[in-house]
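Question thread 4412

I'm putting together a teaching handout and wanted feedback from people who do this every day. The idea is simple: show students a protein as raw sequence, then show them the structure tokens that encode its fold, then repeat with a second protein so they can compare. Below is the first pair exactly as I plan to print it.
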Amino acid sequence: MRKILLKRVLQKISLTLVWLAVIHRGEVLANAPNYLHNGDEILTSHQQANQSPVTGTVTDIAGKPLIDVNVQVKSKNISTQTDLDGKFSINANAGDVLIFSVVSYQKKEVAVELGKTIQVTLQEAVTDLPKVFNSLYVPQKRTTNTAAIGEVRSEELTKTVSTYINGTIAGRLAGLQAFQGSGEPGADNYTVTLRGQAPLFMLDGVPQSFSSINPEQIESVTVLKDAVSTAMLGMRSSGGVIQLTTKKGAEGAQRISFTALSGLQSPLNLPNFLNAYDYSRLYNEALANDGKAPAYTQADLDAYRNHTDPIGHPDVDWQKEILKSKSPYNRFDLAISGGRKVARYFVDLDYLNQQGLIKTADFNTYNTGVGYKRYIFRSNVDVDLSKDVSTYLNVFTRIQNQDQPGNSASNIFSSFRATPNNAYPVLNDNGTLGGNRDYTNNIYGQTVYSGYQPQYFRDFRVDLGLKAKLDKILPGLWVAGRGSINAYLAETITRTKAFATYQQNANAQGAAGYQQFSNPSTMSNAIEITAQNTRFYTELSSGWSKKIGDHELQALLLGNIDNVTENSQLPSYVQGISGKLSYNYQEKYLLDVALAYNGSLAYPKNNRYGFFPAIGLGWNIKQEDFLKNTASWLNILKLRASYGKTGNNNAGYFEYNKYYASGTGYNFGEAVTPVSGVQEGALNNPNLTWEKALKFNGGVDASMFENKLSISADYFIDSYYDLLQSIGTNAQVLGNAYPRVNIGKQRYSGLELQLTYSNKIGKFGYFISPNISTLKSKVTYQDEVQRKYSWMQRTGMPVNQAFGYQADGLYQSAQEIASSAVPVGITPQPGDIKFRDLNQDGTIDENDITAIGGTKPLLYGGLNLGANWKGFDFSALVQGVANRMVYLSGNSYWEFQGSGKEQAYEHHLNRWTPATAATATYPRLSIGRNLNNQQFSSYWYKPANYLRLRSIELGYTLPVSIIKKIRLTRARIFVNGYNLFTTTQLNGLDPESYTGGYPVQKLITAGVNINL
């Protein structure tokens, strides 16, 4: 009874939304008029006089009534639709055939028998690959597309459990790289690049990043990679585009989908710190290497090893004390969709609760842990105001709450790297916080005694659009307009306090004494608006499509203004016009021409607008006569190429203007009080312009064996120029900062391959879909000082290439040092890093600096595979990267950093000593800064290649015989694993998060999805 009540309430809510949208037409949904297909008029009573009423009911396989099913008499202009109970009545003759059709269900035909009530059951339709890409502004037919476009649909996105959409597409699309540098709840987003660039995110055609969205709201994620697919964005087109398209309602019965999943997260990799005994003995060794006396006696070492004095000689595993081994992850999503011919709706409500690893304390009345909660509401409503006019209203609201301890999670993880296990006890014998002169900030105190910092993020966005067909003026002509407004607010409430730490000592009588090193304070309270942004986007467009015989033409003209206000800055905008013309002959010879003329307030008035053209050509060889009727095994074989000019709006805040700021006081004569003045700010660039690129892309699309095998391959060359850079030959004598100027040139090139094979053998279906990409970059010009040797030149090397000394192993003896080139100003010792003397002058100096860290093209990709059999389904996604190097340094990898009192790691056990000279993998140990070993050199660049099982899922869909009894249309249970397994050359470290911050998480969840 409760379930039926809930179902009725949800039905009423969703239908009310549509009712409000169309009430001005006076149409009652439960009694909607019998619209006919193809614009035919309703038959009059005279036309139906010779026919008899035929009644019946239409349900799904679970027996649920289907509303708005179109019932039509075959070959006649007579039709009706089912009501809320799935019932219909239509005039028909005996022997007539009724056609039952509705979106998402298979069409069915039934012969009429007069006097007999018809009972019809419709099966859900099997969805094939969409015939179009959700491309920029208008859909792009796959058969006539000439651009480099990749797309992943909602069904694949939901197979990866990630807070961010970026995490669900990692490894799925060629050309797309995604790295997760942190696992902190609410801050565990992926850094995404597209062909080496930062792409522009768009949500339903509007520039805006909403990557923290549940995948159930997303219909598709489309990547636009070349010039012809992005040129209409003008000066924001160079980085490519990641477009998120949300789901829409469809004509048909109301569908309710509920998904719930719950699981546990755990750290994928934590640093391996030394225990107190190993730390102390290695510390003594480092002091000896530096010619200093030991800090710990043998009695100290024994106490650390035997744990006989936990207060005076503590051995605290701080990560174990502060962090939980597991934390919960829960997400619930409710989606309702449906509609009639007049109006369609999609409504979604989502809740996410992701808790963090940091422990809390029961004695606090507030939460000092790390956590993230997200609430999302989306409503997409489409309404046909008339036969030729339609409108839509989309509403999106998101509230995010993020919890932090008063000292912040990042500071706590920094303290792990700065505090050795033997620093101080967690608590003294009297319950006070441990500490001493060297370590006054107890980590446990940072966690539970420092207060708390709740953060709030609020988004609200409304999209309103209107489209009119102008077929009466010109067949195929339409005009449209839309506006989007978004408001974003970020707020932090800081309620923090200081705490005292104490060092416990024994006096002469053996009684405990406590020395205090800091002072407690009462809770401070502050609130700060950290971000307050608004975006107002408006767009007017007109399009025309026409097919004349074998010729098909589509044209689009669009004008838009994107006005953004960030915090207290002046509003800025990008505005202009753009267009696209697409032509094909028999879908055999293809042409796309795209262009934009737009500008930005970020540039001087006389240089504010630019022109960005692009062209795409295609040849669908399969349509040629010599293949069309002979190669039956070949479904598609299309060659395509594109070339065009794109732009990148990379200017800062009014960089072309000259500014003066308040200066320091100036004394004149005998005046005691300085006279205030002004000083010149950074130099401006009055000729500032946007960055540009010339992009070429050549590709092939093929499909064969009844579309079981599909292949898409691309080769691209992107030449970037007018890049904003500082002049490298500037002299310091000016005494001021030089402006950035448009002088840089870079080139990126690569190969991309996406392949999918799917098949079904009896009841067993399977698919495998690998993708692989290469990325090579080169600095073709930068303003570089003239260098003495060729190996020092930056020009001609990969973009962001690291330069330093080439390591040549470790010095093994004083004799080797004496016979080798000597670093300038440094006296190395055995066990130190030896560097190559590239110019053979007997010294190691700036003339021996060269490219380090690897120069090979980056290789990356993924493998997506799956299978299904008798209700069971399985899927897995593996992501990998090769030829990637990372630089390891600082207190996350080096020993005894800071003032010489910070952490050391297990890999330091493999340091060089005279006894381990032949097997050592780490230089001799030192305290603090080692001028020789910590030079920027190839020794600290390590391969960070990896293969990661990004996600794996096993599901089971309950049989119809079971779910029909509980009036469900579908029920599926599943278990999912995320980041479960990684193989990497970066021993002991995570290849994505290797600097000692909040670790990336692995996640195991179980869930259920039910459809009503």
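The second pair follows. I'd like the answer to focus on this one:
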Amino acid sequence: MNIRSFKTKHAFVLAILVSGLLILRQYIDYLINDYGYDFSWFAVATRITINYLLWAAIFKGLLGIAFYFQRRQTDLKNILLHITTSIMIAGAHRLIAIRLYDFVYYANTGFLRGFFTPGNKVAMSAGLFSSFLEYWVIISLIMGVSYYTRYQLQQKELNAAKLNALQMQLHPHFLFNTLNSITSLIDIDPKKAQKMLTQLGFLMREILEQDKKHLIPLKSEMEYVRAYLEIEYIRFQDRLSLDFVIDEDVNNVAMPALLLQPIIENAIKHGIAKRPEGGVISVQASRANGAKVTIEITNDYPNLNGSAKSEGYGIGTANVAKRLQQMYGEEQTFQQRKEGSKYITQITFPIQSL
């Protein structure tokens, strides 16, 4: 909630609601204590409603005062200045509230009381402290909401900066690995190397167009994955098979840009490249329990003596885990496991639209 967007009309609605609750409280108090006199709905409702509607009428001014003192240094001079200001405003509020009540009373009874009657003097002295407390409650709420809003904004900016830093790590990492693949083909098959460079240029242009976006449609992420795998397919040819199964109803779900690319890199580097016969990389995406998306990447994995060999996957996988945690907190899962000669990476995150 942004307190600056809180308009005067909202303050009036809130004042009426608070007034209604306090009037009801007064009546319940009257019933419980049995004071021995008739409860005057007119007098109670008028006094309370005028009091809070008056605060609502000057709400914009209170916002300005709250922001003014919020920006100033917290020292003795400014504290005393604010206390003096609050006493003056509370006094003016109480004077105006009393006189407005007198006019409403006159409209109802035809009798206008003098301003300096004993009753008004008592109401003024007793009500001044009440107005003083009400002023500080309102100012405290304004400042509290303002500080909270500012904190939330700073957290969003911090998260965006962290996500941007994580995303920026991908570019040199991805570029280095891809260029390394191209380099390995230059002497062996220059035409394939040239084709890979052309594909790389296309992919980098696509990535740079989305560079400042932390979230992109799942469909776009899959297009990046396909483009990267097409580059690797040139190198592996018959040793690499691809299998994509993407449900149509998750195509437009938002997800972090380039999230899957490090996982695909690892599948190539630690899986397909180390198997003489190559293997299959399978990418599946579907809804999970209606509210989340599950993406599962499976690749063939080299075996040693009948068991899958453990490999350290390094910065790429750590980057994926950090980005998911940063973006979704505890609502996401990131799991990797070996099942026979298969290595499976499974990611789930909440469904949200762009």
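Top answer:
Good format. For the second protein you could add a caption like this: The first helix runs from residue 8 to 33. The CA atoms of residues 196 and 231 lie 5 Å apart.
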